[in-house]
Amino acid sequence: MNFDFSDDQKMLKEQVRKFLTDKCPYSVPRRILDSDEPYAKEVWKGLVEMGLTGTAIPEAYGGLGLGALELCVIAEELGRAAAPVPFSSSVYLASEAIKLFGTEKQKQTWLPKLAAGEIIGTFAISEGLHAPSAANIKTSFAGGKVNGVKTPVPDGDIADVAVVVVNAGGKVALAIVDLKGAGLSHEVLRTFDPTRSHAEITFKDAPAELMDGQGWEQVSRILDGAAVLFAFEQVGGAEAALEMARDYSLERYAFGRQIGSYQAIKHKLADMYVKKEIAKSNAYFGAMMLNDEGAELPEAAAASRIAGCDAYVFAAQENLQTHGGIGYTWEANTQFHYRRAKLLALTVGAAIQWKEKLVARLEAKNAA
Amino acid sequence: MDFNDTPEEATYRAQVRSWLDKNAVRKADAKDLPLPKTLEEVLKQSKAWQAKKADAGYACITWPKEWGGGGGTTIQNVIYGQEESNYAVPGGIFAIGLGMCIPTVMAWGPEDAKKRYVGPAVRGDEIWCQLFSEPAGGSDVAGLRTRAEKDGDEWVINGQKVWTSGAHYSDFGIVLTRTDPNVPKHKGLTMFYIDMKSPGVEVRPIKQMSGGSDFNEVFFTNVRVKDSQRLGNVGDGWKVALTTLMNERLAVGGSQGNADADDLIELARETEIAGEPAIRNGAVRERIANWYVQAQGLKFTRFRTLTALSRGETPGPESSISKIVAANKMQELGSFGMDLQDMGGVIRDRSVSPAEGAYTEQWIGAAGYRIAGGTDEILRNIVAERVLGMPQDVRVDKDLPFNQAPRGK
Question: Where is the Acyl-CoA dehydrogenase/oxidase N-terminal domain (chain B) (predicted)?
Answer without folding.
Answer: 6-125
